Amino acid sequence: MDVRIGIQNSPRELSFETSQSAAEVEQAVAAALAGQSALLKLADAKGTVYVVPASALAYVEIGSEESRRIGFVG
Q1: Which residue has the higher pLDDT, 48 or 74?
Q2: From CA 69, how far away is CA 56, in angstroms rounded?
Q3: CATH for 2-62, among 1.20.950, 2.30.30, 2.160.20, 1.10.260?
Q4: Cα dihedral 59→41→50→70 (10° resolution)
Q5: Most buried residue among 42, 49, 51, 73 by CB atoms closer than 10 A?
Q6: What percent of the chain has pLDDT over 90?
Q7: If you average pLDDT over residues 5-17, what whole number do you get?
Q8: At residue 48, does pLDDT exceed 80?
Q9: Predicted model pTM
Q10: What is residue 71's three-state secondary structure?
């Protein structure tokens, strides 16, 4: 699943692929925005952990869980 995170006062965004489900990512974002957690922590498919302060979140885009097809469709 693709995740893109926009950070306030930053022209770039974090973009990565995670093995977490859409529901897990959405739950982590909701907890951070509700003040239950001061940080949003997500891990990508390779094991890298991204930690973003909840107060700096501009947006979080959760992509589809469908894997991309490679090659030509015949």
Answers
A1: 48
A2: 34
A3: 2.30.30
A4: -70
A5: 42
A6: 76
A7: 94
A8: yes
A9: 0.79
A10: coil
